[in-house]
Amino acid sequence: MKAIILLGAPGAGKGTIAEGIKSATDYIHVSTGDMLRAAVKAGRPVGLEAKSFMEKGELVPDNVIMKIVTERLEEGKADARYMFDGFPRTTEQALMLDEVLDGHGGRVEHVFLLDVPRDVLVDRLSGRRVCKSCGAVYHIRNIPSKVAGVCDLCKGPLYQRSDDTEETVLNRLEVFKKQTQSLIDYYEKKNVLVRVDGSKKKEDTHAEIVSVLRTAFCSS
Questions:
Q1: What average pLDDT does the segment 40-66 reach?
Q2: Can you list the domains of the chain with their CATH numbers?
Q3: Exposure b/e, 64-86, CB count within 10 A at least 16 = b
């Protein structure tokens, strides 16, 4: 069992890059957010445990998140390859993940840090618009809708998420920097951190990561 991690600030493009890697390799995309929502919806014990914190507006504790991750890994094959998107977020979570993987004879092979200048991140997020009806995502300059404020797919109204205002974005980026610097240091010391220029076209960023993965696969 092997794993890679996509690490980057809000707006770095982790989800988009993850989809590209998923379509070009045999890595299984693991989204803790999706698994958390699914566990809650299914009424599983770990989901109900998480729900009790979510309903109070509190962060779901690391041990609960790890229960969900562990359950997912135990469902897979021993030689499966996993890709974590935006997880772990802290050094504590990284240590827990290492312990779980080690228990299955696995390890984290690469941690791809998507480096994107702050001004680019602010532009990406503050310019984002989302359809209220179908959830389609646009950008006022990079991916504009054909009619301003109207979704191309369902004609629903587009809006700016409250956490995408410039003031909120700057605060999110500062929190990310403070929260993850020790995590970056942790993986750097383990010699698995790979810095990638995330400000390039998504196709170029995706191709660079896939090249690293294929080189590692051929040499293993």
A1: 82
A2: 2-116+173-219 (3.40.50.300), 118-164 (no CATH)
A3: bbbbbbbebbeeeeeebbbbbbb
